[in-house]
Every structure is written in structure tokens, then in C-alpha cells.
Amino acid sequence: MLCPKCNGKMPTIMYGSIYVERCVECRGLWFDLLELEHMAAIEGSEAIDIGSEELGKRFRDVDDIDCPHCSSPMLKMVDSRQPHIWYEGCPSCFGVFFDAGEFRDYKEKTVLDFFRDLFAKERM
Ligand SMILES: [Zn+2]
Ligand SMILES: [Zn+2]
């Protein structure tokens, strides 16, 4: 698979029992349907996101891309809980592309939200 942002190679990497593709150039990450949620649930999985935030920012504006799996034009998405995270999602096969640093960010805030929800419940 070739990276939809920079045409770099995207070899498959494995963490836990989940396979994702990671670009050797821009360090972007590709998740197939539900892989994002599964990967985010694994402790320590932020280690797969090895690119710097600076690198991610450079490719963040490259957002008119086609899905590397099925060639559909991808949609520009935002995470409703974390509107600063912009990513691209495929409307046909539901894969998603995260720039370098975004998965770490996504995961960190998701865990924080989890604890905040927990405390919110306890105080009620
Ligand atoms: Zn790339
Ligand atoms: Zn697709």
C-alpha cells in the first residue's frame, strides 16, 4: 500500500493483535474499519505513532486524498470529542488516516475523557 498523502511505502506493523499500516516517510497511520478503536484500547499502543508532531503538521493540510484501499475520495473528519484532531475517513471502506502525532493525541485525550466521565459519575 502507498501513502495517500506522500506516496511513501506503508508497511504493515503489528501491535497487540492489531495490524495497521504506517508510512515510512510522513509516519502517517492507516487504520481499517474498527482498528482505530481496537488499537486505542490497547495499553501502550501510542508507541506505534513514532512521527513528531512537526512532521504531522506538515502533512495535515494535505487533505484532498483518495483512499489507498478502494480509491474513493476521502472525507475530512473531526473527532467530535476532540475537534482539534482532523483526520481523513473513507466513506466506502471506513478506513481512517491519522497524521503523525494524532494517534498519540487521540489516545491521550480519550483516556482523560474516560477518567473525567468516571469522576463525573461519582460526584452525582
Ligand atoms: Zn506518507
Ligand atoms: Zn476506502
Note down, in words, how this protein is organized.
The mean pLDDT is 90. This protein is α+β, with helices and mostly antiparallel strands. The longest helix has 22 residues, at 102-123. β5 and β6 form a beta hairpin. It has one domain. It has three helices and six strands, in the order βββααβββα. The chain has a six-stranded antiparallel beta sheet. Helices cover 29% and strands 19% of the residues. It binds zinc ion (ZN) (2 copies). Residues 67, 69-70, 72, 90, 92-93, 95 line the site of one zinc ion.
List the helices and strands and how they pair.
Layout: E1 12-15, E2 18-22, E3 29-31, H1 35-40, H2 53-60, E4 75-78, E5 86-89, E6 96-98, H3 102-123
One zinc ion binds at residues 67, 69-70, 72, 90, 92-93, 95.
Distance between the termini: 49 Å
Query: What value does the average pLDDT take?
Result: 90
What topology, given as strand order, has the largest sheet? 1-2-3-6-5-4
Specify the structural class.
alpha+beta
What ions, cofactors and ligands are bound? zinc ion
Summed up, the helix count is 3
Q: Which segments are poorly predicted (pLDDT under 50) over 5 or more consecutive residues?
A: none
Specify the biggest β-sheet: 6 strands, antiparallel
> What pattern of helices and strands is seen along the backbone?
EEEHHEEEH
Count structural domains: 1
Strand fraction: 15-25%
The level of helicity is 25-40%
> How would the global form be characterised?
globular
Radius of gyration: 15 Å
Number of strands: 6
